Amino acid sequence: MPRLCDIDETVLNAQLSAIEKAKGKRPAGYTDLRKLLEDKSIDAISIATPNHNHTLQTVWACQAGKDVYVEKPCAHDMFEARQIVAAAEKYGRMVQQGSQQRSKIGPTVVKQIDDGLIGDVYMARGLCFKFPEHHRQEAGGAGPRGVNYDLWTGPAQMRPFTQNRFHYNWHWFWDFGNGDLGNQGIHQLDMARWGLGVKWPTKITAMGGHFMFDDDQETPNTLTAVFEFEDGPPKKMLVFEVRHWTTNHEAGVGGARLGGDTIGTSFYGSKGYMSVGKRIRTSTRVGWARGGSKRWGRLRPTRTR
Q1: How many DSSP H helices and E strands does the chain contain?
Q2: Does the N-terminal peptide bond of residue 155 adopt cis geometry, omega within 30 degrees of 0?
Q3: 229, 201 in Cβ contact below 8 A?
Q4: Are the C-beta atoms of 109 and 191 separated by less than 8 Å?
Q5: Alpha-carbon span 154 to 28, nearest angstrom
Q6: Which pairs from 151-157 meet CB under 8 Å and 24+ separation?
Q7: Which of 149, 146, 153 lies closest to 53 in space, CA to CA?
Q8: Among 67, 107, 221, 288, whose CB has the most other CB atoms within 10 angstroms?
Q9: Kind plus residue range of the DSSP H or E element containing 304
């Protein structure tokens, strides 16, 4: 029987009741993760808390002898990520980050790239174009009844409670989240680096900001980040872009009609390109024009599930 932990009693009780209805028995519930970790019968935990809590909670679990599945990103910054690695090694625990494309569409994508479907790959683009919610400015106050706001804040600086900084919306505040680059973008960045076959960038540049809205959001809603890798030769480039509001789809990601989100990864090679959204779409070169200067031939779109 699983155990559940949540600092919001409304959320916790709803999930406990759902399990009780499905299984016929109500599991134990906790508001303080440290109390749950005292249970010697627990072998592993799954962490789906705000980013700023991931590292401390993962380290606590390793110290308590538990293996850990922690949602992406595993940490709030690179220093914290190194502490997770150190804790896993010190206490001999298994820690996995929730990069779901690694076990879903990813292996098929990488195999096709490695098999040379689009030739020599030199660039990838990660896309996160979302129509956003508008987070109006909100005055702070005390946390709502049934919410342990102190535990939720954890290692971050204590600030007055607002709904704008609470469930899910915490992604858009630096104390707790990393914006959409560190939210949705974790999946596309991982896919892009995997497909390119690279590790660490040698050059990084980024520019962006918060446009259109005068609201509480702190993280950029429009951003372009460029990474250059020299694992090779040859060198390779990765571009990640965040856009909000109305925008176009790109390279077959997001469908043919305007509207909706455009979330995916595109790869560009010497023989064509591949776009990865919910499905894999490839367009490959079918030949060279004869006579005069050489040019690209007609692109033939293909689909694989």
Answers
A1: 7, 13
A2: no
A3: yes
A4: yes
A5: 22
A6: 151/7, 151/31, 151/32, 151/33, 152/7, 152/8, 152/50, 152/53, 154/52, 154/53, 154/56, 155/52, 155/53, 155/56, 156/52
A7: 153
A8: 221
A9: strand 299-304
For CA atoms 111, 117, 120, 122, the dihedral sign is negative
**Residue 71, strand partner residues:** 98
pTM listed for this prediction: 0.87
Distance CA 70, CA 132 (A): 26
The whole-angstrom separation of Cα 161 and Cα 147 is 10
| H helices present in the chain, as ranges | 9-23, 33-37, 51-63, 78-91, 106-114, 149-153, 185-196
Per the DSSP assignment, residues forming a β-bridge with 276 are: 265, 280
Total number of residues shown for the chain = 305
Torsion of CA 65, 71, 76, 79, to 10 degrees: 50
Q: Which regions of 63-202 does DSSP assign to beta strands (E)?
A: 67-71, 95-98, 121-130
Question: C-alpha 161: how far from its chain's center?
Answer: 25
The two structure tokens encoding residue 92 = 């001999």
Both structure tokens of 137: 């400015």
From first CA to last CA, the distance across the chain in angstroms is: 36
* E strands, 212-251, in order: 222-229, 236-244
| pLDDT tens sequence across 157-191 | 999 999 989 999 999 999 999 999 999 999 999 99
Six-digit token string for 80: 């914290």
Of 239, 250, 246, nearest to 277 by C-alpha is 250
Give the span between the Cα atoms of 240 and 235, in whole angstroms.
17
Lowest mean pLDDT among 77-81, 92-96, 231-235: 231-235
Beta-bridge mates of residue 203: 228
